[in-house]
Design a protein that fits this description.
This protein has about 650 residues and is of the alpha/beta class. The protein folds into 4 domains: about 375 residues, Na+/H+ antiporter like fold (Up-down Bundle), CATH 1.20.1530.20; about 100 residues, 3-Layer(aba) Sandwich (Rossmann fold); about 45 residues; about 70 residues, Alpha-Beta Plaits. Helices cover about 65% and strands about 10% of the residues. The strands form 2 sheets. It has a 6-stranded parallel sheet with strand order 3-2-1-4-5-6, with helices on both faces. The protein is elongated. It starts with a helix and ends with a helix.
Length: about 650
């Protein structure tokens, strides 16, 4: 039995992998692949699993999704966009939900069903729309800003829905106002209590976790906080997702925001995949085939009705026609949170499975059409209206004007802070990432754009705007960091200059092959600066000094290698050693070309004869008695070379 279950899980994963790969090739979202996998795995086709078996695990996906949403819930950002968020956003959700609910009531359904379906239709897909707007570089355009504002309010509107649905389930279909008011007050009190406690406790907890410098502990703590707060709100009679949202919101203003989101994303994506698979299992294809024309009709009505509603709301707010149409088409689809609401409504027995299946299918089809609608929204808007030339020019220039590049500093220690001070003096924007919680806290208190985050994680680098960075500066001299972060940075930003600071130049060639535009060995550069000052004070012209320094850098610091060893320290892994050729030495009267230098793996740097030094003598040079050879190499190789040179 267990063997069969394992095979079924592997088959389900294989179907999901193939479906995601195929749909991504044709430009469709991965959500549709998960739904398709659920259909094949569910009772309609192979019946490997039931939705009930997947429900408990899949619910965790919703919890982590709401936690991620809470991390993005920024009160300062919300206040800055208050007109569009609370004006246009509220109007869109309220009017769309009321109109949709009124149509549902006209079809002789209950008030509860009207509330659930109206709310589900009012929501759009945050994941699909934001991803496409970002890819198309439309976030700075007016229709992109309006879309983001409306989506932000829709995300906020999910929170009261998560409170109301369990309350409606408690009162069943007959909604009593007194009970709802009492339970709502209880929810508000619980919300305030958790917020007060979390505001004080959570930052301190994560301060201690960060000081431990353990990525495993950080991930476990993040998961524990999301699940514990979710379990607490569920114990209070509210939704688990609400508690996770509150925890995310409390941590969203901390310096750990980017690291938290990066750590939670793999678990969230996996569990959300299971959630959408469980939704797909709920689809009864016999029912879909029986009511196919009603589903198509509802889809057309939803897309047209929602688009017209958003269009007229934007026109009332005096937005231009082109902008209004482009925004309406971008938000016409039904979103992923609609699946959450429909799933919760079915589990709370607020909605019939047959009705839920029909609307899930409508949501799936609308999301399949969403990428095409978003990509062609501007062109369709121009076709459907006689646009204002000023608006059109603004939209075109927004697409053509690149974002001002910032410098991304990975590591905010002594070197990173020194670089940032000079950048600020020249008014060059920068963003820095660091893993020291105390340093990040101090810097953020001082108003610096510094964030807590591991630069070896793609999600954090993307959030830090690596694709728009004009330069990346790596200041942390750790082999693990350099190897991993350099490869990821070069992959995400193939054309961006990457400057790498190292302690010395031992791995300089490997770093340049891995993608570093320039490697700056700190110790050797310090020596060069000292050399430049000595030469300048000795009267050497500045232009000549600069040429010597540049030549040294181009030759990979050739003259800064090989030092005579001392008793206290070994400055370099390669030493400089002098060998005096006495009478009868093996190499006396031989030429440089006669000596097996490659076999000995040492370098002949220079030969001193009669007080004069000849650097890198050519192959025809002949050694004489009394010559002093300066050899460069590792200690053991120099010992063997000296023995060969003297004794043969």
């Amino acid at each position: 039995m267990e063997h069969n279950a394992l095979i079924q899980i592997l088959l389900m994963l294989l179907v999901a992998i193939v479906a995601i790969a195929v749909l991504r090739r044709v430009g469709l979202p991965a959500i549709l692949a998960y739904l398709f996998t659920g259909v094949l795995s569910g009772p309609s086709v192979f019946h490997w699993f039931t939705a009930a078996q997947m429900h408990s695990v899949a619910e965790l996906g919703v919890v982590l999704l709401m936690f991620s949403l809470g991390l993005e819930f920024s009160l300062p950002r919300l206040w800055a966009m208050r007109r569009t968020v609370f004006g246009i956003g509220f109007a869109q959700v309220f009017v769309t939900a009321v109109i949709s609910g009124a149509v549902v009531l006209m079809l002789q359904m209950t008030l509860t069903e009207a509330l659930v379906l109206g709310s589900a239709i009012a929501l759009s897909s945050t994941a699909i729309v934001l991803k496409l707007l970002n890819e198309l570089d439309w976030l700075k355009q007016r229709h992109g800003e309006l879309s983001v504002s409306v989506l932000l309010f829709q995300d906020i509107a999910v929170v009261p829905l998560l409170i109301v649905l369990p309350l409606l389930a408690d009162t069943h279909v007959s909604v009593e106002l007194n009970n709802i008011v009492f339970d709502t007050l209880k929810g508000i009190l619980a919300f305030v209590a958790l917020m007060a406690f979390g505001k004080w406790a959570l930052p301190r907890i994560f301060d201690e976790v960060a000081r431990a410098r353990s990525s495993e502990l950080f991930v476990l703590s993040t998961l524990a906080v999301a699940l514990i707060t979710g379990a607490l709100t569920q114990w209070l009679g509210l939704s688990m997702a609400l508690g996770a949202f509150m925890a995310g919101m409390l941590l969203g203003e901390s310096q750990y925001k980017r690291q938290l989101e990066a750590d939670i994303r793999p678990f969230r994506d996996l569990l959300m995949g299971l959630f959408f698979i469980s939704i797909g299992m709920m689809l009864d294809f016999q029912l879909v085939l029986a009511y196919w024309w009603q589903i198509i009709a509802i889809l057309v009505v939803v897309l047209l009705g929602k688009s017209l509603t958003i269009y007229f709301i934007l026109r009332l707010f005096k937005e231009p026609k082109v902008v209004a149409i482009a925004t309406a088409l971008s938000l016409a689809q039904v979103g992923e949170f609609s699946f959450v609401i429909l799933s919760l409504a079915v589990s709370y027995q607020l909605l019939d499975t047959q009705i839920s299946t029909m609307f899930v299918m409508v949501a799936v089809l609308s999301m399949a059409l969403a990428p095409w609608l978003v990509r062609h929204s501007v062109n369709l808007a121009k076709l459907l209206s006689s646009p204002d030339l000023t608006v059109t020019n603004e939209m075109s220039s927004a697409m053509l004007t690149p974002q001002a590049g910032h410098v991304l500093i990975l590591g905010y220690g002594r070197v990173g802070q020194t670089i940032s001070r000079f950048l600020k003096a020249e008014a060059i924007p920068f963003v820095a990432l660091d893993l020291d919680p105390t340093r990040v806290t101090e810097a953020r208190t001082a108003g610096e754009p510094v964030y807590f985050g591991d630069a070896c994680k793609r999600a954090i680098l993307k959030q830090a705007g690596i694709k728009h960075a004009s330069m990346i500066v790596m200041t942390i001299d750790e082999p693990r960091f350099l190897d991993n972060a350099l490869a990821i940075c070069r992959e995400l930003a193939p054309a961006t200059k990457i400057l790498v600071r190292t302690h010395d130049d031992v791995n300089m060639a490997e770093l340049e092959l891995a993608g570093a535009s320039q490697v700056i060995p700190e110790r050797l550069e310090g020596s060069l600066m000292m050399v430049s000052q000595v030469l300048y004070k000795s009267g050497v012209p500045l232009s000549r000094i600069l040429k010597r320094l540049e030549l040294e850098r181009r030759n990979h610091y050739q003259f800064l290698h090989g030092f005579f060893s001392g008793t206290e320290t070994e400055m370099s892994p390669e030493l400089l050693h002098a060998v005096l050729l006495p009478k009868g030495a093996n190499v006396v009267d031989k030429q440089v070309a006669d000596i097996p230098w490659q076999t000995m793996r040492v370098e002949l740097r220079a030969v001193r004869r009669a007080g004069e030094e000849v650097e890198s003598p050519d192959a025809s040079w002949q050694f004489n008695e009394g010559d002093i050879l300066l050899l460069q190499g590792r200690p053991r190789r120099i010992e063997k070379a000296e023995s060969i040179l003297l004794q043969g």
